[in-house]
UniProtKB/TrEMBL annotation:
Organism: Clostridium pasteurianum BC1
Entry protein name: Isoleucine patch superfamily enzyme, carbonic anhydrase/acetyltransferase
UniProt keyword list: Transferase
Highest taxon listed in the record's lineage: Bacteria
Organism lineage: Bacteria, Bacillati, Bacillota, Clostridia, Eubacteriales
GO molecular function: transferase activity
UniProt xrefs under InterPro entries: Transf_Hexapept/Carb_Anhydrase, Trimer_LpxA-like_sf
C-alpha cells in the first residue's frame, strides 16, 4: 500500500518489489532491486526515508523517520523480521537481525551487525565490522556494548543522552508520569497529521 502523507508520495524504482500488504507512507525513496516484504511498514513522518539498492526489508519490520530524524539506509542492507529502525544512518553491507532496534541519531558503519534482539541506542556509532551480540545493547560514542543485566552501567551512559529531549523534544521531569504526559501530548498531535493521508 502506497500512501501520500503531508503532500509527499513514495518514489520506488521499477525494479524493486513491494509486497501487497507492506505500507510505504510519505517521503520515501526505494532503490533498485530492493525487496520490501510482507507486513513491513515504512513510515516517513516529516523527515525522509531513503533505502538504497539491493536491500531486503523482511516481514513486519518497522522503519520510521520524524521531523528531527530522517532515516538513510545505504546499499546491500538486510533488515530482519520485526526489526525497528528509526531516524538513523545505516551504511553499506550492514546486517540488522530479527527483533533488533536501532534508535534516533545512531550510525551503523559499513559491515557492522546487530544480532537478534540487539539494541543500538540514540547517538551511538557502531564502527565498521563491529557487532552487537544477541540481546546486547550498544550505547554511546565511543560505543560501549553491554549485556542487558548491566542495567545500572547502561543507565549511567543513557541518562545524559536524554532520550525524551532528543527524540520527542520533551524535558525530562522529576516525575516520570509528567514526562510521559508531555510525550503523549506531543505524539498524539504529531500522529494527527495522518488524518489527511491518501492511499495511492
Amino acid at each position: 500500500m502506497l500512501i501520500n502523507h503531508l503532500g509527499k508520495s513514495p518514489i520506488i524504482d521499477a525494479t524493486a518489489f513491494i509486497a501487497p500488504n507492506a505500507a510505504i507512507c510519505g517521503d520515501v525513496k526505494i532503490g533498485r532491486n530492493t525487496r520490501i516484504m510482507y507486513g513491513a511498514s515504512i513510515i516517513a513522518e516529516g523527515g525522509t526515508i531513503e533505502i538504497g539498492d539491493d536491500c531486503v526489508v523482511l516481514e513486519n519490520a518497522v522503519l520510521r523517520s520524524t521531523v528531527k530524524h530522517s532515516l538513510k539506509i545505504s546499499n546491500k542492507v538486510l533488515i530482519g523480521p520485526n526489526a525497528h529502525v528509526v531516524g538513523c544512518t545505516v551504511d553499506d553491507n550492514v546486517f540488522i537481525a530479527t527483533g533488533a532496534s536501532i534508535f534516533h541519531g545512531a550510525k551503523l558503519c559499513r559491515g557492522s551487525e546487530v544480532r537478534i534482539n540487539g539494541v543500538v541506542h540514540i547517538k551511538t556509532i557502531l564502527q565498521e565490522n563491529q557487532f552487537v551480540p544477541i540481546g546486547w545493547i550498544a550505547i554511546g560514542n565511543p560505543v560501549e556494548i553491554l549485556p542487558p543485566e548491566k542495567h545500572d552501567d547502561i543507565w549511567k551512559i543513557q541518562k545524559p543522552l536524554d532520550f525524551p529531549e532528543y527524540v520527542y523534544g520533551v524535558n525530562r521531569e522529576d516525575e516520570q508520569e509528567n514526562t510521559m504526559l508531555q510525550v503523549m501530548k506531543m505524539m498524539t498531535n504529531t500522529l494527527k497529521s495522518h488524518e489527511n493521508d491518501r492511499v495511492l
